[in-house]
Amino acid sequence: MASLLIHWRQICRISSKVLSLTAILIFLGFFVPAMADSFADQVRPILKKHCITCHGPDKQKGGITLHEFDSIDDAFKNFQLLENIIAQVEHEEMPPDDEDIQPTDAEREILIRALSKVVERVRSGNVPQRAGRTTLRRLNRNEYHYTVRDLFGVNFNPSKDFPADGAGGEGFDNMADALFSTPTLLEKYLSAAKKVVDAVYADPELKKNVIFKLPDAENDPKSSAKQVLTYHATLAYRRRLSEEDLAPLLNAFAKAQQEDKDFEQSLRAPLTALLINPRFLFRAEHDEPGKDEWPLNDFEIATRLSYFLWSSMPDRELFKLADQGKLRDPKILREQTLRMIASQKFTALSRHFAGRWLGFDKMIDQVDPDPQRFPSFTPELRRSMYYESIEFFTHLIRENRPLTELIDSDYTFANSTLANHYQLKEPVTGNELRKIKVHDPNRGGVLGMGSILTATSLPLRTSPVHRGVWILDAMLGDSPPPPPPDAGELPADDTKADGLTFRQQLDRHRKAKQCASCHARIDPLGFSLENFDAIGRWRSKDANGKPIDSSATLPGDITFSTPKELKQLLLAGKDKFSANMTRKLISYATGRGLEYYDEVTVNQIVTGIAKKNDSCRELILQIVSSRPFLSRSKTR
Fold first, then answer.
1. Is 131 within the bounds of a domain?
2. CA 505, CA 585: separation in Å to the nearest integer?
3. pTM score, two decimals?
4. Looking at residue 11, what is its pLDDT?
5. What's CA 362's distance to the chain center, in Å?
6. Which residues pair with 538 in a beta bridge?
7. Which of 137, 208, 450, 573 is an S-S bond match for 536, by CB 3.0 to 4.6 Å?
8. Phi, psi of 431, deg, nearest 5
9. Mean pLDDT, rounded, of the chain
10. CB–CB of 626/587 below 8 Å?
11. Which domain holds residue 599?
12. Residue where one domain finishes, among candidates 568, 600, 615
């Protein structure tokens, strides 16, 4: 196992993209301007010799178009390819073996040395630095739901009929660039606003809370309306209110009064208007002309913090501190972050960050195990699997657990339904999830969770390919490329195997030239989880009654077999996992995809939390105090 772990550290560097030597060469023309011209002179003949035919303007094998890289900034933006390319050159995986002309050892050495210098530049921050820029960001469906809940107290989801939000950045649905607005959505906003206000007026207690001030001897209707609307608009717009902000709302109130409507009914139109105002629907951050970078103001920090941790608007305490200009105080920012983590609303991060990152949000309405093949997959089991993952992720942060427990832990959260499904030794009764000791080393951590195992399977069978891709993508941040158009398809049902086990069918498939290189890295990871069936039960035989073969070999002769051994490999590459989780969190927190200049922040955070037992809570604290979170720059 010791040698296996050493080899795994090497395999963690292997690319998820099938790149040719051409990609390496084109980068070299731009990465290090200080390189001697003689070096560039050495590279260009190699480029012409090996690459242009397959990767020029007329032909882009593997989807690689080298002629589009025309600046060092373009090259830096693709820096994450560099380590992977280095590994491929070191292992002589690129160019492919079937190429008649191969680079010499000297050429490979030049490439590795040059690329390593570039990687070090990016990792150390020796590149142009900036905080990053998030564009105007619309509230997504979840954020809209939680915001109107906290603003007016309604207990239904008015956004359930909104169109689905697109994903961008690191794959999240709160990315500014992917949150488009359409005429259909604007119509939905108006309809939702009316439903929210109707719900307020239909509930005497809610109406009393919202319309908290009535006219009296000291306050005429206009004065009372101004107090009510100023309070709610300040919360809804997430900043101090100006007269310009308030004027349209007061005008709507005055118009209703002129139509002889009573005080409360006169507030219907302005309260509805408030919910369709762009100041409510969009999160804007200020620019400072003439500056390349500037700090966010306190209201913007409060908004970023609340939508990061709660997917909702800042509460009164955050607003008060923002109004006092105190949120930039590191001590107060830390205190508020810890307070918000302790709040019940913090489960939103588990639902919408972890659910999207790890993929267990598919349990809500996407996974569909065949009911005849898996009759035990009931709605209660589906719900229990989903909430197990939410409880587990929330626990890691609230209880300041190490992030490595996502990979391997000796506990989970289960009720009687899950305990029976997992065949846990400890007796569990009732429907409520509670922390349970896990004695099987194959089960602990997300790799043994039913939500993950089901979400990475097909309706009738497991999918070693889907599970392997999930590990590369979600755990290691090495997303493999999509399959080529001529890759072919595997059977949807593993009982129809023509006398072969499903693994034998997959082995035959992966021998195809266009499939082999990717499947060599993907499939072994999935093979080691084959003892878990398509709904996460442990099994020793497949659907045809044949023994499960979970043995796996990765490039470099790295052999392993069980989920337990796979977890040991992942733990050996802990820093890679930590960096990937950090990138995901920064992207989710800022609402944008990460750029090369963010990498120095990622490395600083990974190093910082490593000194504190890889604390999940410390990871959150360091992100909210980081440059990308607290500042904004002129350009991306």
1. no
2. 38
3. 0.89
4. 42
5. 14
6. 532
7. 450
8. -90, -15
9. 87
10. no
11. 572-633
12. 568
